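Course exercise 7: structure representation. Students receive a sequence record and must write out the corresponding structure in token form. The form below is the worked example handed out in class, using NarK/NasA family nitrate transporter (403 residues). Read each field label carefully; the graders check that inputs and outputs are placed in the correct fields and that the protein name is recorded exactly as given.

STUDENT ID: A-19
EXERCISE PROTEIN: NarK/NasA family nitrate transporter
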Amino acid sequence: MNKGFLKAGHLPTLIAAFLYFDVSFMVWVLLGPLAVQIAADLRLSAAEKGLMVAVPVLAGALLRLVNGVLVDSIGPKRTGTIGQGIVIAGLAAAWWFGISSFAQVLLVGVVLGMAGAAFAVALPLASRWYPPEHQGTALGIAGAGNSGTVFAALLAPGLALAFGWNNVLGLAAIPLAIVLAVYLVMAKDAPDRPAAKSLAQYAAVLRNADAWWFMFFYSVTFGGFVGLAASLTIYFNDVYGLSPVVAGYFTAACVFAGSLVRPVGGAVADRVGGVRSLTAMYAVAALALGIISLGLPSAWLALAVFVLAMLALGMGNGAVFQLVPQRFRGEIGVMTGLVGMTGGIGGFWLASSLGLSRQVTGSYQAGFLVFATLAAIALVGLTGVKRRWRSTWGAAAVTSARI
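STUDENT ANSWER:
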């Protein structure tokens, strides 16, 4: 981060966007670290466990589109305030009334999806303050709120052991309320906010092939990241017999790696170009997930390969959002919603397919292998579009950013 970057935008808003995103992601994946204890109490099957951790991801994916529209209509700050209030109220209600059935857990998962939709608020909130040459760094910092998933994996299993998993839902509302107060003070909508568009204008974006490419690319990078973040506690407990707390520590290490490098991925993309950095990241992710699908003999070896996969996916998240604002700066709100939605759908697919694969075949191999194949397809697709991108909207005459 150089002096030019610090002078280019609005640092308090960038910090507020990061904090808002961080605590939102912490609660979005909360059911994953708690899944072992919840499943034991409610006697859930492998497929039900997979669905339980996948529902917040899917709900968050769909609600991102809603938030993307609201961001362009009423502004990101107001949209974020409304969403955070809904999540706090939902967690408080779940704690107060208690959870005693699988259906009630799924309902909580839908509410937690609103926290996952914070993505479509935090990124436009930060993005609109920064010029094209600093988009990768700014969105990498705001997007490093992915690190909230580390706190969930690290703290939730231990707190559940000490106080009961239902009480953890109530405790999670406390940092949300504190950060909401900070957000209200520090966050500020950019002065050049684009005028609100009609739903027909939003739908028009989908007629652009590049929008679909970005949606697919992010469904692999972010989908892989959040799908693994939601599922790895179950995986390490089931496959290697680790206790819920230790499995949470292993998951936290993987998630920390993927979260930490998101700003790095954005900064690298600013320097060498988003296409070039994404090419390397998809290749590494496909290889790592392919190795994992074969089954590894020890938890520590699996941890090492998962960390490698998460590093590639985390950097890929930053690289995708170095490119999106260059192509769709005037539609960044709706594009953040659309791209974020498909990222969440990718996570839902991975989390649910792992549980289904385990129940049907007795192994997680098929779920990992399919996602490795998707990473390879993304690599091929990126290779196919990069020349057109660099000669049209990515040309030096059009943007000062590296494509």
